[in-house]
Design a protein that fits this description.
Elements lengths: L1 H11 L4 H14 L2 H10 L12 H20 L2 E5 L9 E5 L6 E6 L16 H8 L5 E6 L10 H9 L1 E5 H9 L11 H4 L1 H6 L14 H12 L3 H34 L3 H11 L2 H16 L1
Parallel strand pairs: 3-4, 4-5
Antiparallel strand pairs: 1-2, 2-3
Length: about 290
Amino acid sequence: MFEQLVTKIKALSIIDFKDATEEIRIFVDDIPEDDFKKIVKQIGTIPENIEHDSTEEKLYSKTSDIVLARCFRLLGLASRALDERADSADILAESISGYNYSLVADAKCFRLSRTAENQKDFKVSNLSDWRGSENEYAVLVAPYFQYPQSTSQIYSKALENNVCLLAWEHISILLEQNVKETISLSMESLWNASQMIARDKSLSFANAKCCFLPKMDVYVAKKIGMPDTKYKNLLSKYKKLIVYRGRTEIAYWNNCIDEIKKYTKEKAIEELIKAKKLQEKINVISQYIDKLSR
């Protein structure tokens, strides 16, 4: 089903973006729940056959917002992916079980060929600002193994601004275990996890930048009511899935290399000119000096 979703994204990338987004929304919301859960396991990794910095990639990113919004709905919240706007969160969700809270969320996806190490890749501070005064919580969802695994400023920023750092793997495990907010089970403590971690007196200023994903694992396992060993076994299965995806992506690039080796000299030159966007650069300069010449 994930492959079908990627094919759909590619096919729709040539039409108006707003129309394509609506088509994707309908497609994602109509996927049977069991198939949808399989998509959640893979959506955090952008396939290498999605061209970098393209309309396809932008639509894939928007698709991840739509997927995460449905995840929140399956977790018992009212949720929707918001229209494309600068300086705002991508997803809004709110409790419908009487707990009287709302949250903003941001979905992050990364390529296996690009390690996300810069704090600006995660936009933790931005997400805190986008929460505004009307929403209690801010939640970032990114691939577990693409978060910095040792130290990073994103962790101290998350603790300082009470931004919940979750992984697609966390969301997937919650869905697989059929966890859902009800009048007898609140999810609020999970969204508030960073504040709870920040209150830990054993956490000194010096180690505020340390990766606290293991602490988030504890919160997720507790919400499910799952023993620590069983939870770790589940998480290791997700690691194996990433390894499998990695081998698939390597095969894709090896096939690309094989195709390039078949190029004629003329074709190779043509592709190199295109890759360096030389004609586009010439066109921009030409338009600029044409204006000056009038």
